[in-house]
Amino acid sequence: MLYRTEGIVLKTIPFGEADLIVYFLTHDCGLLRTFARSPLKTKSRFGSSLEPLTHSQIAFIGKEGTSLPRLTRSDIIHSFQLIRSEINYFIMVSEIIELTLKFIMEREVNRKIYTLFLETLCNIENNILEFQTYFLPKRNGQNLKARLDLYLIHYKIKLLRISGYAPKLDGCGKCGREADRFFTSQGSVFCKKCSQRMEAPFVISKGVKKFYYNLLTWDITKINRIRPSEMLLSELSDILNAHIEYITSRTLNSKEFARFLASLF
Ligand SMILES: [Zn+2]
To answer: Which uninterrupted H or E stretch holds 101?
Structure first.
């Protein structure tokens, strides 16, 4: 059976001498793994369309439910070449590629994440372009790195929420009272009284809590208009990264996690 959809290349793995396994985040099939025959040969029909981040119209063929359908077409809609062209930008974006691969189950349609991923790439590229075109060291008080960090943090928060792992910062995880001590092992803040025997926490400022809940609800058009301080971005980023590191090292890739995620849909 032949299927068509649009997708973004997340990563490729060499297979044999000239073939590739290509991971797409797609509009209609969620995370999709496909087999591409001979894309590494010079006259390949795929051309440069299998470079990471390339957004394309794709077609693939396979029996229903097959785990590795064969990619038959890939027509570029947008290459996101600008993000790939500088290693620093690509490394930043690689972080959300890896997270998406870890948090999204194969073949689980998730259009919200697909759209957000695409919008995030578009905004990152537009910002790079704007800073480069006008040689801007800063714009409205922000440098390019802080600008890109904001989009990445926003994406991470939305991905965590959709996969059921958003940290809870709005009140003590036990008694509900106001609390500012965040524990990665619990994914929540706790008040002093309820956290007496726990490990060392991250202490979270009120500003970060507010910022986090704003990002959780705001869409990307709102993100385009805000200019948070670098300190706020870095504080929230540290908490999120510690939280993500804890869950990915403990739970992800286990069968238990796969079952948990499956139960959310
Ligand atoms: Zn408490």
So the answer is: helix 87-103
